[in-house]
Amino acid sequence: MPVPIEKLRNIGIVAHIDAGKTTTTERILFYAGAIHKMGNVDDGTTETDFDPEEAKRGITIYSAAVTCKWKECTINLIDTPGHVDFTAEVERSLRVLDGAVVVFSAVEGVEAQSETVWRQADRYHVPRLCFINKMDRIGASFERVLEQMRKRLNAKPVPLTIPIGAEHGFKGIIDLVRRKALYFDSASQGRTITETEIPEDYVEIAETWRSQLIDIIAERDDAAMEQFFAEGDLPEETIFRILRQATLAGELQPTFTGTSLHYVGVQPILDGVNRFLPSPLDVPPVTGINPRPKKNEPTELVRKPKNDEPLAALIFKIVADKHADLCFVRVYSGVLKSGTRLLNPRTGKKEFCSQMWHIQADAREKIETDFVEAGDICGVIGPKDVVTGDTLCEQQHPILLESIAFPETVISMA
Ligand code: GDP
């Protein structure tokens, strides 16, 4: 069943190497029920790090896409490489995704490479959520990382959860909007969450954080400000609505915390992705060039994320397999159908899309499909003379999507 486009989220998890991107991705997939068999980063058996050679080197190289469902939304997670050598690849993924979750380590905080990635995300206007991870580690400080984010990244983090304790004393998190304490049981792999009243010694701390949050929200909206003055508080829906607008505009970043290794804080990230990050409808339509404009025809083309627009699809990754190359494609407009011949405007040649798949969380499991609608991401087998960054379109409606200079990378899974 196709997913309604407004319920689609094409997002990436971005992080400095070692901040916990792999662990967070895996916990998200597990929590969303997409994978049932757990791997462990330390022995290189996680689902997203499955290339044993690369896993050995500790580099997350599986820069493709996996899909999971969370509540009413379908989330396509587009992997972004964390290693410094892959900056160009990070740029490529940032162009394909609509929103990002940026993971920071509560110990190391904002590192040089986080600054690079943050600026790249700024350049591509990617709305972001932040996750301050590893609160259980010695030297962890939630507030220090927030401060570094403001100073070094010029970010505007808005905490929606705060930690209860830190280091060995880290116990859980407080949901500031709902005024609840959440304790996670890592023995149950995050399935058990005990929700309680906020512990007494945290009531005042949580209220201080909450009033900072309400101030930020009320300041942005006259009606909310009036409501706040009249009632002394704001309802959940108002907080979320205003925060969503500000997040999409790139003005604020909803920020969460926890320790993904022990599943703490994973559910708020998933809720945050659904609530605050854009669907393909919330981002500007893709633009491209008409490769052979006839007289009076425009050279610049805009394609809206609609099924009845001409097809515009971008190959953002090619994974070489023993049998056939698997192209990861984002469909910006129109419907991509299997068994069709499409134009590659770079070469002027036709390419045959023989099979298409939705990529599931377990990268080895693929669900075959006949068509993929505007906004979605899929795997395609068939195109031969293609490189990453190529467009696929209809012969009678050619478009060359604006392409950044992608270095050619073909990763071998054989
Ligand atoms: P990546 O390089 O960003 O993908 O980071 P990984 O997910 O591979 O994590 C790096 C290391 O930190 C691994 O040994 C993880 O087990 C560990 N790690 C990740 N998250 C946490 C956390 O929340 N707490 C603790 N204590 N360790 C973590």
Characterise this structure.
The protein has 414 residues and is of the alpha+beta class. The chain is built from 9 helices and 25 strands. The strands form 6 sheets. The protein has a 7-stranded mixed β-sheet, with helices on both faces. A hairpin with a 4-residue loop joins β17 and β18. α1 crosses α9 (266-276) and α6 (200-219) runs antiparallel to α7. The longest helix is centred in the middle third of the chain and has 20 residues, at 200-219. The model is unreliable at 36-63 and 404-414 (pLDDT under 50). Bound molecules: guanosine-5'-diphosphate.
Number of strands: 25
**Helix proportion range:** 25-40%
Which structural class should the secondary elements be placed in?
Answer: alpha+beta
Into which percentage range does the β-strand content fall? 25-35%
The value of Rg in angstroms is: 22 Å
**Sequence stretches where pLDDT stays below 50 over 5 or more residues:** 36-63, 404-414
Q: Largest sheet, if any?
A: 7 strands, mixed
> Could you report the average pLDDT, rounded to the nearest whole number?
85
Organism: Planctomicrobium piriforme
Subcellular location: Cytoplasm
Binding site for GTP: 15-22, 79-83, 133-136
Family: Belongs to the TRAFAC class translation factor GTPase superfamily. Classic translation factor GTPase family. EF-G/EF-2 subfamily.
